[in-house]
């Protein structure tokens, strides 16, 4: 999230006034996902290799990757990163865009309540829990097709995204892309109840 906050701040300061703030929030989120994936993707693959017993240590995984082709071998540590980005870029973009919009609207209402006594509007923990759950759940529901295609490829059911897409359409038409969406929302929305209040607390501690 530190990369997101930095990118969002830079984009909001430098972009022309004609560019919608929501578009900049989405762009900042997308770029931050790409940045974090550069670190997370190889670490995740090394974790999988260690858990499966293919290597005994992280150093062993790096040595094996380098030995299999130098820089190209190390590049194989990013295998599957594209699938993650296919899902995570729209997910986090929608998630943070919805969160920022709902948070701004809630702050306006809170400010109206305290305007008479000159107080400073702040959102309660319960406000943040509700907003976080809605943002996370909505993003999870809207990006279910990407998650479904990613799962099919990674589980070996389909050779690639195109094949996965065609097989899903053949099985149940466009509606089949939303298979499991309810469970995905049920699983992912509670994370927003914890994540966003913690995120706001961190920002307050940093004085932002």
List the helices and strands and how they pair.
Layout: H1 2-14, H2 21-52, H3 58-67, H4 71-75, H5 81-114, H6 125-142, H7 144-154, H8 161-172, H9 181-205
Helix pairs in contact: 1-2, 2-5, 5-6, 5-7, 6-9, 7-8
Provide a compact summary of the structure.
This protein is mainly alpha-helical and 208 residues long.
Question: Would you give an account of this structure?
Answer:
It is a single chain. This protein is mainly α and 208 residues long. The chain folds into two domains: 79 residues, no CATH class; 129 residues, no CATH class. Helices cover 77% and strands 0% of the residues. It is built from nine helices and no strands. The protein is globular.
Keyphrases for this structure?
single chain, mainly alpha, 9 helices
Q: How far apart are the first and last residues' alpha carbons, in Å?
A: 13 Å
Contiguous low-pLDDT stretches (5 residues minimum) are none
> What does the radius of gyration come to?
21 Å
Q: Please describe the biggest sheet, giving its number of strands, its sense, and whether it closes into a barrel.
A: none
Number of strands: 0
Indicate the structural class: mainly alpha
Strand residues, percent: under 5%
* Helical residues, percent: over 70%
Helix count, DSSP H or I runs of 4 or more residues: 9
On the 0-100 scale, what is the average pLDDT?
Answer: 83
**Succession of helices and strands:** HHHHHHHHH
**What's the overall geometry?**
globular
Number of domains: 2
